[in-house]
Amino acid sequence: VNGGWVIPINWDVFGPAIVLCGGALLALVADLLTTKRSFLLSWVPMLAGSTAALVLDLRSAGFPVGFDGIILVGTILIVLASTVLHAENAMPPGEFQFLLGSAATGGLVIVGAADLVTLLVGLELLTLPSIALVGLRQGDRRAIGSAWTFFLASVVSTAITLMGIAMIYGLSGSLHYGELGWHGGSGARAAFSVGLVLTLIGFLFKIGAVPFHAWVPDAYRGASPVVTAFLSSVSKAAVLGALLVLVYLGFPPESSGVWLPLVAAVAVVTMTAGNVGALRQNDGVRLLAWSSIAQAGFLLAPALVGEPLPAINAAAQYVAVYALANIVGFIALAVVSKVRGSTSFDELAGLARTDPWVGVPLAFAVLVLAGFPPAVIGLVTKYVVFVPVVSGGWTWVAVVMAINVMIGLAYYLRFVATLFAPAEAAGFRSVGGSVGVRVATFVVMVGALALAAASLWPSAVLDHVVAVTIEPR
Amino acid sequence: MITAALLAFAVAAVVLAIAPRAFSGRRAAELGGIASAVALVELARIPIGKPGTLWAEVDQPWIGSPGARFHVGVDEISWPLALLTATLTLACCVWQWQRGTSPALVALLMVIAGASLGVFVAQDLLLFFIFFEFALVPMWFVIARWGENATGSKQARRAATKFLLYTVIGSSLMFVGFVLLALRGHSLQIDELRGSTSLTAAILIAVGLAVKVPLVPVHTWLPDAHSKAPTVGSVLLAGIFLKLGTYGLIRLNVQMLPQPTERIAPWLAGLGVLGIVWAGFACLAQDDLKRLVAYSSVGHMGFVVLAIATMSQTGIIAAVFGSVAHGLITGLLFFLAGSLKERYGTASLAALGRGLYGRAPWRAVAILGAGLATIGLPGLAGFWGEFLTLRAAFEPASLLPQTFSIVLMVIATAGVVLATAYVARFARSLLQGVPTRLDLDRDLWRREALVVVALLLPILVLGFFPALITGLFPPIGYAP
Hints:
A: mainly alpha, 74% helix, B: mainly alpha, two-stranded antiparallel sheet, globular
């Protein structure tokens, strides 16, 4: 295609990203203008920016919401809850909000991307600020170490993706989705397959799929739980959305023979390894970190159906619920770690009794992730991801998923049992904490209430989270 | 009416969870008892309809896109089991009418009862599955928190986890089977999926339910869970939970997937009979009364599965009768064994000593009555389930070859002899002989006696009037 460098811009898609980015810049500038450390000064512009972006997004795209909606709602919740960092002197507020906003903008860009260059730029916009966020806490050596690991993993994966994209561009002569393909015989086809696999490997790195997952537990644990909440929900939803759009709408349908087995193998190995890794954890954050590796396998599974509509929608519905549950979980842990100083199981024992406003929502979010009633919505979304797997003819994958539901329950239940354990110590109450902690607790409660409401009316999620409504192509 | 019964349990559970301080000790049990009684009455007043149709059906849209509906109703198979659920729960609440009862325990019992009832009434696969899973985590807490040696017992916790993981692996496989069926049949309604032919789905569902029943190679969770659970936990596990498995086999395998189930029926029948014999021998070797009763459950469930595997009308009646009778009888036995354990701190036959007739006559008589019912003595409810099973095995309707089936029948009959032997054994060693008096000797408390009578009564009534259940079904046709 001629004039391949002219990238057409769809403002309906790009508008919210610009607004969000504006909010982030405003937060940075506002913070620069004063010499005194002020949390509100950067928090308000960022919150306003992300809210405005959501409003804009809803006005242009409307219901049902897709990945962009999930990213924006998640970002708003995390910005709101970032008040828990209010009193943390080591965390520079302006930089934090700016980096968070930039990363979220990157997320919006990649799910809306329709060509490989935009995708790559967006991916970097998402990743680089995320790395900085992980290591942002001043004087925290472990966080800086984690950021380094994350950085190295990320650079390698970007290089691999870049290589793949270069090969695909060379073979198809285009960067635009839908025009990617190969000309010529089996040699070109093989080369394209190599390029495709290389591109996907980069994505699998970012989504934290096994065997490219090693950075996840380290980064999740080193970062502040608020940042971890972002990485495990918003960032993951964005990468997943971009990946699905790329493989289904970007690559030619004939290429599915290459990536379907790859995705199947990676999904199966990821969920199993993640779950087995989580079994041994005795710390809330580390347990959720490993669980989110396992969940990445479930997130990838619907891609196996072989048709874009059911794959993308099932993944969007699953990731919407998963992301909300993870945000509730990690923010609750952020509150605990703020109030009590640790998120080890010893510290969490009996939390649902001593501090029900945080403990009960946390337990509910964990049950959502496990997919067990009373968290019916978790079970229903499990059904949603099983359906495309079975309908694509991957019954054996579904059986492995079923076994993984069992393994997952083993540690999720241990977590819930810990939270409800009879507690002797009176402990601290988050509701009595500072304003920042209270706002974060409020976010936790609202998120859990939303999950509870969705458990009674699962249609509220299933009917309103639909990323693709008409068959493209 | 069904919805009201479900709501009764739900409301009681929510109230107890929100305001535990307002309901402590006896008041929690009272609230639970009232809820169970309401549920029992609501279920009992369902007008009996024609066999094969749904009575008191409610069908409301629920989740649009997968097509799940809030679709409940009972028929001749599920109604007796629903009544059993409410009855046993009521009995459990009476049992817990003591000062130390924790409101959380009663709340969990309510959830378990409501969820089990939900399984029996659900006519939508997703709804069925949600209820099926709903009861598991509460049961884990009941066993782990209130199980043997009270709080923090490692053993109870391990038994609970074993129970949970076994059941969940089974139910997850069943879930895959449901998804397969839903995709093939474009529906989640059990009646609309009738006649589906997927063998894979039938196997996955049967495996999942076999863990629950339990059938022999996957039964190992049962003795631990039942013996470590608190009394009411054991009662609900044995009385209701195992029925979820047999009910599922009838409803989902025999009725919904008859063709593929015919092909796995010989396996079910063989494993069922293996269970009868295995359990018989295992019971002979048990010293702990709770463990003994737990193993005897495996045997009784073997009978029920044999009946189901014949896939005949007689077999279904036998299975339903056997399930209800087992629920009442084993429930009673667990109450009595639990009472011993609560009283003496152990259920070991050796430690309990001999001559209970002389030490606590009513307790001894109750144990003997329940033991006789376990054997299947004519005139008690247990008889009809086993008799009809043997009758059904003589004339299987499924692909079960008749010679194979008759061999199974003969082996199963030997199982009855084994049952007689183990009951005679514990009756001799515990009830008879020169009384070895212990300081703790005391006859049944009044609330215990009430529960015993309340369960013995239906056992007797069903023994003398089996038509109360068989009459719900169309008359058994005799093959020429």
